[in-house]
């Protein structure tokens, strides 16, 4: 089984040359988190992930989570030990409010922690990820008492958190939730209903589990407008913070899944469980939206993290495995498969996409930090600018990186040949684990709809076109560089397509929503890939050309521009086509005869 090497230099490169960490650290809000401090901490985090967490990944897959008749769920022993050490490390608290025990570091630094944690063990990483979502919700919308009661222990990880939206009839359509909340007369509520697919809904690695549950209060209006959010702890908490009685929230089964076996996916039954309203009545859906950006960013990151881990393993295999004679190698010898052009193609494709995804994810996180710091400095224009930019990138990060994550883990498996298809090498685990990310936290179809339905129209398309203008300027600079080949030309061509698609969709939106949505997924791919290329161009142009490591980054950026970016040039017709072709056959005609 291969080890995991934290890609610290790659992360540093993106933070320095693409996501402008220095500018984030120069703001008043994040002034205490200077780049050197952040990189020192990340070096420690990397060591922790490689030594403590990465070795547990296989146990997650082969032992997995186990459900027991008494409703308990147990994880492999190695998970418990690693989680205990994670709590002791304090790394999880980095981005949170110092008033409750966090370090107040920028989100971009927390994303680096999360990248390494997810590469090391995605199934385990989901416990802190869901906790983070619950922390954000309570912090943003909870009362002072709720914050004081829950946040400190959630920030350390002693207590974990969950997000309970999904029910059998309410998946993408969260407005169809039927779980009920009845007032108990003392300010608390009785929550009754069943939730499915609840990640880390029950487990034995933390002392308490703080469930956030969407439910309907009596006589609430139908749809999303009638949904409220409740906090429902597994163990009720005394006024002195001690754990009291077990609440009537239980796990009645866990799912058997394609991947992430070490992440319990629970069917949760709430049987008059005691909960408290978080935020106002009927504000549940709106409040959920405030933390969706971070959650979607973190799930997009999973595509990057698993691609990185799978790539490292594939690279090792390609160097070790000998088959055939490479072109130009002496007769009678056999060569490592890394010498064959097609294997090089697969490796370079992974490497370039990993760089592109990392550029996108960290830029997105940095934009959220810039929006926060502008808001805290009272700079309304700056806050709006950065928030719009971050909002545009969110569906690209979530949709593109998770789709590409499945493709890159598949390529890594392909490099292993038959040994990739058998479980022994572990290549298959990354592929199976990656497959969930395009599905949860809003399927990628929903991300594409968000992109064309909400994001594209910001400033009448101005947020997109400002970015494309920047890329045009960068294409000119690439032309002037000695070692960027046709990257500038290809970037300019992609921008032309992205502009045409954007203009078309903006015109289509008001009168033909079906065609708008019909073209949304190819549009996300076209725009997302162009954005990755534009960001890689920024890094390539900013990096010192004489540095050996930077040269590898420039080569991979050029490969992206010359060989990956052109793959989206054929998408324009499917974006601009009318949806008529999608509906030409009615459902009965789609039936196989
Ligand atoms: C392993 C795992 C962990 C999960 N963890 C959690 C969790 O912790 N908490 C939680 O609340 N939920 C969780 N979920 C649920 C997850 O968020 C949902 O599965 C997801 O939102 C999709 O809902 P669905 O499965 O009902 O699919 P459906 O909504 O039935 O969608 C089926 C297909 O139809 C498409 N579709 C549906 N509606 C539209 C539309 N309006 N426009 C375009 N396409 C559409 C979808 O894109 C998809 O391809 C988890 C799921 C899994 C499998």
Structure description:
The chain has 593 residues and is α+β, with helices and mostly antiparallel strands. Helices cover 55% and strands 11% of the residues. It has 20 helices and 11 strands. Helix 9 packs parallel to helix 11 and helix 14 crosses helix 18. The longest helix is centred in the middle third of the chain and has 37 residues. The radius of gyration is 24 Å and the shape is globular. The two termini are 47 Å apart. It binds flavin-adenine dinucleotide. The site of flavin-adenine dinucleotide has 19 residues, from strand 3, strand 5 and helix 14.
**Which band does the percent of strand residues land in?**
5-15%
Residue share in helix: 40-55%
Coarse morphology: globular
The average pLDDT value, as a whole number, equals: 96
The secondary structure category is alpha+beta
Q: Give the beta-strand count.
A: 11
Uncertain parts = none
CA-to-CA gap between the ends?
Answer: 47 Å
Which quaternary structure do these chains form? single chain
Whole-number radius of gyration? 24 Å
Main beta-sheet strand count, sense and barrel state: 7 strands, mixed
**Count of helical stretches:** 20
Which ligands are bound? flavin-adenine dinucleotide
Reconstruct the topology from this structure:
Layout: H1 8-17, H2 21-25, H3 35-53, H4 57-62, E1 66-67, E2 73-74, H5 77-89, H6 107-120, H7 122-141, H8 144-156, E3 159-164, E4 180-183, E5 189-199, E6 208-216, E7 227-233, E8 235-237, E9 243-246, E10 249-254, E11 265-278, H9 284-320, H10 341-376, H11 380-415, H12 418-421, H13 427-434, H14 444-455, H15 462-480, H16 487-508, H17 513-518, H18 520-542, H19 548-564, H20 572-576
Parallel strand pairs: 3-6
Antiparallel strand pairs: 1-2, 4-5, 5-11, 6-7, 7-11, 8-9, 10-11
Helix pairs in contact: 1-10, 3-6, 6-7, 6-9, 6-10, 7-8, 7-9, 9-10, 9-11, 9-13, 10-11, 10-18, 10-19, 11-13, 11-14, 11-18, 14-18, 15-16, 15-18, 16-18, 16-19, 18-19
Bound molecules: flavin-adenine dinucleotide.
């Amino acid at each position: 089984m291969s080890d995991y090497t934290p890609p610290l230099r790659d992360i540093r490169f993106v933070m320095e040359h693409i996501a402008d960490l220095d500018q984030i650290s120069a703001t008043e809000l994040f002034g205490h988190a200077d780049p050197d401090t952040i990189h020192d901490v990340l070096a420690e985090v990397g060591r922790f992930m490689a030594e403590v967490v990465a070795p547990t990944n296989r146990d997650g897959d082969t032992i997995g989570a186990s459900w027991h008749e008494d409703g308990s769920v147990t994880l492999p022993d190695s998970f418990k030990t690693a989680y205990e050490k994670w709590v002791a490390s304090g790394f999880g608290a980095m981005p949170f409010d110092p008033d409750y025990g966090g370090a107040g570091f920028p989100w971009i630094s927390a994303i680096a922690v999360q990248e390494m944690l997810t590469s090391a063990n995605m199934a385990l990483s989901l416990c802190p990820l869901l906790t983070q979502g619950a922390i954000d919700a309570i912090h943003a919308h909870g009362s002072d008492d709720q914050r004081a009661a829950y946040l400190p222990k959630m920030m350390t990880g002693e207590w974990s958190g969950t997000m309970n939206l999904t029910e059998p009839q309410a998946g993408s359509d969260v407005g169809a939730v039927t779980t009920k909340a009845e007032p108990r007369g003392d300010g608390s509520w009785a929550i009754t209903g069943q939730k499915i697919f609840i990640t880390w809904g029950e487990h034995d690695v933390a002392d308490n589990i703080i469930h956030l549950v969407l439910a309907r209060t009596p006589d609430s209006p139908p749809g999303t407008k009638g949904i409220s959010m409740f906090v429902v702890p597994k163990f009720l908490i005394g006024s002195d913070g001690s754990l009291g009685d077990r609440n009537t929230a239980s796990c009645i089964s866990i799912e058997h899944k394609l991947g992430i076996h070490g992440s319990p996916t629970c069917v949760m039954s709430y049987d008059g469980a005691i909960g408290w309203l978080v935020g106002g009545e009927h504000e549940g859906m709106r409040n959920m939206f405030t933390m969706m950006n971070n959650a979607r960013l973190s799930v997009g990151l999973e595509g990057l993290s698993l691609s990185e881990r799978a790539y490292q393993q594939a690279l090792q295999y390609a160097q070790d495995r000998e088959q055939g004679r490479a072109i130009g190698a002496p007769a009678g010898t056999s060569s490592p498969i890394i010498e064959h052009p097609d294997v090089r193609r697969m490796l370079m494709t992974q490497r370039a996409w990993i760089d592109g995804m990392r550029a996108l994810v960290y830029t997105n996180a940095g934009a959220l930090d810039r929006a926060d710091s502008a808001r805290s400095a009272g700079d309304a224009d700056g806050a709006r600018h950065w928030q719009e930019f971050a909002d545009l990138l969110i569906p690209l990060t979530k949709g593109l990186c998770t789709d590409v994550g499945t493709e890159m883990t598949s390529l890594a498996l392909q490099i292993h040949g038959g040994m990739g298809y058998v479980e022994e090498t572990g290549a298959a685990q990354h592929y199976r684990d990656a497959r969930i990310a395009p599905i949860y936290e809003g399927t990628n179809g929903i991300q594409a709809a968000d992109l064309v339905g909400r994001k594209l129209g910001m400033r009448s398309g101005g947020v997109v076109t400002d970015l494309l203008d920047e890329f045009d300027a960068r294409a000119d600079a690439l032309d002037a560089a000695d070692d960027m080949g046709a990257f500038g030309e290809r970037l300019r061509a992609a921008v032309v397509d992205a502009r045409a698609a954007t203009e078309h969709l903006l015109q289509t939106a008001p009168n033909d929503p079906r065609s708008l949505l019909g073209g949304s997924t190819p549009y996300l791919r076209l725009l997302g890939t162009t954005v990755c290329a534009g960001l890689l161009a920024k890094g390539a142009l900013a990096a010192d050309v004489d540095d050996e490591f930077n040269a590898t980054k420039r080569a991979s950026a050029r490969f992206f521009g010359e060989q990956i970016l052109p793959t989206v040039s054929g998408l324009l017709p499917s974006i601009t086509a009318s949806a008529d072709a999608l509906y030409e056959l009615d459902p009965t005609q789609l039936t196989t005869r």
